[in-house]
Design a protein that fits this description.
single chain; alpha/beta; Aminopeptidase; 2 domains; 40% helix; At5g42320_M14_CPD; Peptidase_M14; metallocarboxypeptidase activity
Length: 429
């Protein structure tokens, strides 16, 4: 019944989204007024790309015991790119990062989505304990992160961001006009009827772009348990797939969806869309990073988070469409999404086993191009150790009752836990 209810709920959302999303995501079919004044970047709220990266580097230098950084450079055919990677590890000098739970996050993959990199800066400041978030105990937060390594790419598309700062406020592609979120190898190059090269140019081949090559190399070497690609344009918590209107089959897919609903309930009053990107955005996207991370790199939990969107902005007013321009809305977005990521860091590991307990898993994605080197990887999971899962469910009940401030199990939580345990075979139908 729970699955049926979730399916019904998703179906209702899809009907709404198909109608609304074109007005909040990009230039596809938007009928907003062309007479509205265009919004320029309010630099009293936003950093320039140089200033933001400089501030992040200074933050890292102030906290060498927990933060480290590297700049990865790559280029081809006369085009070069560089990506800053920041690593958070509270025991950096003592433990091998591969023995810990690993999270990889990218912000600023599309040049015009400035708010995402501002969230990255805020999140790193919180992790470094230089910034406190209301209602969250920094000591408790950092203690829970002892066994986690987080790699943050605060601005994946620096070259595209520079074009935006120079006045091309609608530019989402990289410095030579390629959409980095269409340049990956799963279902690469397929074009829908509404294909717009300005929005979705996939490049000359999968991984033709240095930025995508850097990110693929980082993912392969780091082998994350959770991947999060952070965008703006709407408010949503997406899981695979982007290239088709469905989510993956199996227990791992159920765990991803439950985790997203938890984040949605705790921080967003269940107002964010939750589910498949291809099923909820209103169009299919091919060659995306998240689909590749899930199907080829075998990241157990792969997500795309959409953190802000102005549905009333003109289609030509790109900055306002993708970024808050009011100080109150800016601070609200930065703070609550930083809180949401901290919750993801806390709940994610409890939903997965330790590295030693992981089992192999297989996914059923789209056509893979240029993925032969990765397609045979088999060191990730399709489920959890049963005893570990049962213990996690016990901890989940305790955690969520604490959030609810109650000693009794609320009915929606009870139904969800019954469904979850039934999936594990703990309860017999």
């Amino acid at each position: 019944m729970m699955r049926a209810l979730l399916a019904l709920r998703s179906s209702i959302v899809v009907v709404i989204v198909v109608v609304l999303v074109p007005s909040i995501t990009n230039s596809r079919g938007v009928n907003s007024s062309s007479d509205a004044p265009l919004t320029s970047i309010p630099f009293d709220l936003y950093h320039t790309s140089d200033a933001l990266l400089k501030e992040i580097k200074s933050l890292v230098l102030r906290h060498p015991d927990t933060l480290a950084m590297e700049t990865v450079k790559m280029g081809n055919r006369g085009y070069a790119a560089e990506v800053l990677v920041v690593t958070y590890d509270r025991e950096m000098k003592h433990d091998n990062e591969k023995s810990k739970f690993r999270i990889l996050m990218s912000f600023g993959q599309h040049g015009r989505e400035l708010i995402t990199s501002e969230v990255a800066l805020q999140l790193l400041s919180v992790l470094a304990e230089e910034h406190n978030i209301l209602n969250m105990d920094p000591v408790s937060i950092t203690k829970e992160l002892d066994n986690i390594v987080i790699k943050v790419v605060p601005m994946e598309n620096l070259n595209g961001r520079k074009l935006v700062e120079a006045g091309d406020l609608c530019e989402r592609r990289n410095g030579r006009g390629v959409d980095l979120n269409r340049n990956w190898g799963v279902d690469w190059g397929k074009k829908e009827k509404d294909y717009d090269p300005y929005e979705e140019n996939p490049g000359t081949a999968p991984f033709s772009e240095p930025e995508a090559q850097i990110m693929r190399q980082l993912a392969k070497s780091f082998e994350p348990h959770i991947w999060v690609n952070v965008h703006s344009g709407m408010e949503a918590l997406f899981m695979p797939y982007d290239h088709k209107n469905t989510t993956p089959d199996g227990h791992m897919s159920n765990l991803m969806e439950l985790l997203l609903w938890d984040v949605n309930r705790i921080h967003f009053e269940e107002k964010c869309l939750v589910g498949s990107g291809g099923g909820l955005v209103g169009y299919l996207a091919h060659g995306t990073t998240t689909d590749y991370m899930y199907d080829i790199v075998k990241v157990p939990m792969a997500f795309t988070f959409e953190i802000y969107g102005d549905s009333e902005a003109s289609s030509k007013d790109c900055f306002k469409m993708f970024n808050p321009v009011d100080k109150l809305e800016f601070n609200k977005a930065v703070n609550r999404w930083s809180e949401a990521f901290l919750t993801l860091f806390r709940l994610g590991p409890s939903r997965l086993a330790t590295t030693a307990g992981l089992r192999k898993w297989d996914s059923t994605g789209g056509k893979v191009i240029d993925g032969s080197l990765e397609s045979n990887k088999d060191n990730k999971i399709d489920g959890l150790d049963l005893g570990y899962q049962r213990a996690n469910i016990d901890r989940q009940i305790e955690f969520e009752l604490g959030l609810c401030g109650s000693k009794t199990v609320p009915l929606p939580l009870l139904f969800r836990l019954i469904f979850q345990t039934a999936e594990l075979g703990i309860l017999k139908a």
